[in-house]
Amino acid sequence: MANSELRIFHGTSHPELGEKIVKHLGLQDGKIKISSFSGGEIYTRILENIRGQHCVIIQTCAANVNDNLMELFIIIDAMKRASAQSVSAVIPHFGYARQDRKAASREPISARLVANLLEEAGADRIVTMDLHSDQIQGFFNIPVDTLTALPILANYIKDKNMKDLVVVAPDTGRAKVAKKLADRLGAQLAILHKVRAEHHKSEVTHVVGDVKGKTVVITDDMIDTAGTITSGMGALRAAGCNKESYVVATHGIFSGQAVERMTKAGFTEVVVTDSIPIPKEKQFKGLKILSSAELLAEAIRRNYENQSITSLFD
Asked: Where in the sequence numbering do the catalytic residues fall?
């Protein structure tokens, strides 16, 4: 064990997840004040002595991603100025992860900008879950632990003991992860080919693989507007998929017409984790939310005790 104590704090983006993580670790919530001035500026103050301690701040990127990130930067700065020995930022859903490259001229690489800001604020380590693109790890000059919810999602589907199962990747970029899920489930693999006209607009044009008469599990890192998965389900049904259909994803953003689209698509179940808070008005019949708290808590504990993170997924 390290000589310094482990202190866990959480921001305002997802207090329920923060409290679950603290409970799994058998610790007390760190005392912190977070408020806003009338002009909208965020104020934070650590309300306990953290000098020389290992501090963890849990803050996901939810609906108010810009406020969530700014709050995170300010909390990290407060911790460093309070002489914390180290500051680890646990960001279950990493904001701006989809802006990881220049897809057109004169575009920013916003994921790199967020990485730079986290380092400049004073973060010593980042813990996140199922990045949209693994290359984002290379934007940092500090350690980044990228966890995956794959075992959580796989165990849930496996417990259903379904036969004639096919795992479907929504595009070629997700094929590698889909293959890992298929191997865990002992299932076949299919891949959808899609074209994207612009942001939030995509169309599935081909299905690669045999899905006729099969039960399908579409897997993705996130569900945002649900355009890809609902378009994909239409293509799968046209290819002869007439049994149960499941969607599993780590991050349930559910923006725009996502809930309406998924409800109309008639999925048997849509399974996500609690990496992002999902308000009651966005919950619907067939939605299953699995907890990621135990996984995140174990990663925090292993970092503190200098144990392997990789062995979590072996």
From this structure: 194
